[in-house]
Amino acid sequence: MTPTPIRARVLLVEDDPSQARLYQQAFPECRFTWVRRASEAVAALESEPPEVILLDHILEGGETGLAVLPALKRLAAHVPVIVVSGTLAIAEQIHALSGPQSAHYVIEKPVDLDVLESTLATALRDCGLGEAVAALRSLERAELIESGERERLFTERLARQHELAKQLRGSTSKPNLSQLAQEFAVDRRSIRRDLQDLVSRGQLPPEILGRDDEV
After folding, report:
1. Beta strands at 9-13 and 31-35: parallel, antiparallel or unpaired
2. Domain range 9-126, its CATH number among 1.10.3720.10, 3.90.180.10, 3.40.50.2300, 3.30.10.20
3. Confidence check: pLDDT of 69 > 90
4. What is the pTM of this model?
5. Would you kindly state where each structural domain of the chain is located, as residue ranges?
6. Cβ partners under 8 Å of residue 93, min gap 6
7. Is the pLDDT of residue 215 over 50?
């Protein structure tokens, strides 16, 4: 188990109430949005994008997770998806992990909670926004997109916010703005603005901000 509890907004697509309770009890610091059907998952995703999607394969009404996966990725390509299933054959697992609308991970049932926790931590740390930053920097290096001052500042800010989210995800106390400003070579105002963005997107808890910084 990781020493810091995982805090994240999780869209849980799972038709089994006992399995949903298992996840909620195992990760009490996470904010779960629990739905049982694929159509409900799409609606929930449109309402409030999560930081990670936990997707069961066999759902209510004969629906399947792999069938709804492309729709979820079209709506939120930056959100990592973890498929959980006890019925997928090897070929189906490979299919789930292949192509532009694929999942990041497949975990078999019965779920090993230590494995799930490690996978969630890795997905939150390295996937999603982290991949977007890496892709932008790669495109800039290859000169496939403009790399003017505005574009460079956007990429830097996105990268900085991703690093801040990784550093502060498990904390609820106000960080040292001066120390962070020095670490990232920006002024305190930039760090404060980054933290406000992260709180407004739900990536960090409001407690991370002082009284004067509330959004």
Report:
1. parallel
2. 3.40.50.2300
3. yes
4. 0.78
5. 9-126, 129-213
6. 106
7. no
